[in-house]
Design goal:
single chain; alpha+beta; Porin; 60s Ribosomal Protein L30, Chain: A; 3 domains; 8-stranded antiparallel β-barrel; 4-stranded mixed sheet; 7 helices; 30% strand; elongated
């Protein structure tokens, strides 16, 4: 059997079991209608306006740095205790993909290194011939960090649940400025000062963070970073070959920095790119499979339903004659409404089985005077993809029909009413419905309707065609799609 390589690649990318679970991901499918195409005209370039996710955020947090690898340390210092400093960070974050992003981060803090006892030849002959030495370092740092979302990167293909927790990994370099002080029996003194943007002031840091999604705007995160300063004088030990800095062989004073932070996701969309699973999108456009190019040879197991797929591979052995099938021999249902394309009178628009796969329409009966019949023109509603106000090319014929209808009413005026399903917040849905209504109004005006005949109105989720879809998870996707509409009312 000769099979188109594009079909093989896509079939390998989609687990067989996933086709049976498509209903659980329809909210993603309707949001990304142009992800895959086999030459369809319904393809838009990827621009700023076509983005469906927020990808910018700002983060801030505070915590405790502990010097771990140095001559003077915060962890189990010479007196057997831990010494705590403080730290804070502020960053601007950009998501590049669902699994990778960049951070421009500013850190500020103070490490405190514990005392240890050291002997001095100048000590009196009686009493304690030792004195204590301690360190304190104030630092400022600017760095660029790579951000890997391990939860999305390693997500199982059969995990359709939205994530609330995410494990992130961070690594990057930057410039470090600090002032290191030393305190001994003689008092406190500045030992080393390093200014930023010097060759020797570069440092590196890496670590992990666990994020919790509070809502679509706010994340909480516990993060632990390991900072490598590359400098033997960061701990306040003084000159590189001083008596203190000769205690240990390492030439880099390093510390842990554990913080608790919050992220605010910026943008007009409801969800953020780093919380999205792109594997969901592959299930919507099935026309790639429909364009298979097979030259079927004789099957040893036979092909009893004559659909071009051998019975050994065929997952639907009783495909109706004339039905288009995918690479597994399953009859295509492009709009996923439960009616296969062979029997579906509205192949690309979801609708109930009892209406032959077409949505029920709120049609305003047009006037029959002037030689125009109701079969020729009507005011039908149009539906929208999830979280979108873009008029689909498949709906332009309906709107062109509306232009004819409105222009034939001799002075009649109409409300152009936008509506949404019940996903997202009520405030967001209200704004989205207004954008949809204004989008249709602008189209009608651009195509010849006088602006004084139209009034755009958004009703958000308050005017559901199917009120039982509250919440949206109670209904099949064709009903939720029917709620995402623009329709007309005579004024």
């Amino acid at each position: 059997m000769k099979i188109n390589l594009a079909i093989v690649a896509l079939a390998l990318a989609i687990p067989t079991a996933s086709f049976a679970q498509m209903d659980s991901v329809t909210m993603y499918q309707t949001e990304y209608p142009n992800t895959f195409s086999s030459g369809s005209a319904n393809v838009s370039p990827f621009t700023k306006d076509s983005k469906r996710f927020n990808d910018w955020s700002i983060s801030a947090g505070a915590g405790v740095p502990l010097v771990q690898s140095a001559d003077l340390t915060s962890i189990k210092n010479g007196n057997g205790t831990n010494v705590f400093g403080y730290s804070a960070y502020l960053s601007v974050d950009k998501a590049i993909t669902h699994a990778f992003g960049l951070k421009l981060q500013y850190d500020r803090g103070e490490t405190r290194q514990g005392a240890y006892n050291t002997k001095t030849d100048n000590a009196p002959t009686t009493g304690n011939p030792f004195f204590q030495v301690a360190g304190r370092t104030q630092y400022d740092a600017i760095s660029i960090l790579g951000d890997i979302n391990f939860s999305n990167l390693l997500r199982r293909v059969d995990n359709k649940s939205p994530l609330k927790w995410a494990l992130h990994g961070y690594a990057g370099i930057g410039t470090l400025a600090y002032k290191a002080y030393q305190e001994n029996a003689s008092g406190q003194s500045l030992q080393t000062e390093v200014k930023p943007f010097k060759f020797y002031s570069f440092f590196g840091q890496a670590g992990v963070g666990l994020k919790y999604k509070v809502n679509n705007r706010i994340d909480l995160e516990v993060r632990s970073m390991y900072v490598v300063t590359g400098d033997d004088e960061f701990d306040g030990g003084g000159a590189q070959y001083s008596a203190i800095n000769l205690r240990e062989d390492q030439i880099s004073d390093n510390f842990f920095n554990t913080t608790l932070g919050v992220s605010l996701k910026l943008g007009k969309h409801t969800s953020h790119l780093m919380w999205h699973d792109p594997l969901q999108e592959i299930y919507y456009k099935l026309d790639v499979l429909a364009d298979k190019n097979q030259d079927v040879e004789v099957c040893k197991s036979g092909d009893n339903d004559n659909d071009g797929v051998c019975d050994d591979w065929d997952r639907q052995l009783d495909t109706p004659a004339g039905a288009r099938v995918d690479g597994a021999g399953v009859a295509l249902d492009t709009d996923l409404d439960g009616v296969i394309d062979l029997y579906d009178k509205c192949v690309v628009v979801p609708g109930p089985v009892e209406n032959d796969g077409c949505p029920y329409e709120n049609t305003i009966v047009p006037p029959t005077s002037g030689g125009i019949t109701e079969e020729e023109i009507s005011l039908d509603p149009i539906e929208f993809d999830l979280n979108s106000d873009r008029i689909l090319p498949s709906n332009t014929s309906i709107l062109n029909n509306a232009v004819k209808y409105i222009n034939s009413t001799n002075g009649g005026s109409y409300k152009v009413i936008g509506a949404t399903d019940t996903r997202a917040s009520e405030a967001y849905n209200q704004k989205l419905s207004e954008r949809r209504a204004n989008s249709v109004k602008s189209y009608l005006i651009q195509n010849g309707v006088e602006s004084n005949k139209l009034q755009a109105e958004g009703r958000g989720e308050k005017d559901l065609k199917y009120p039982e879809c509250e919440p949206a998870t109670k209904c099949p996707e064709w009903k939720n799609r029917a709620n995402r509409r623009v329709f007309f009312e005579a004024k």
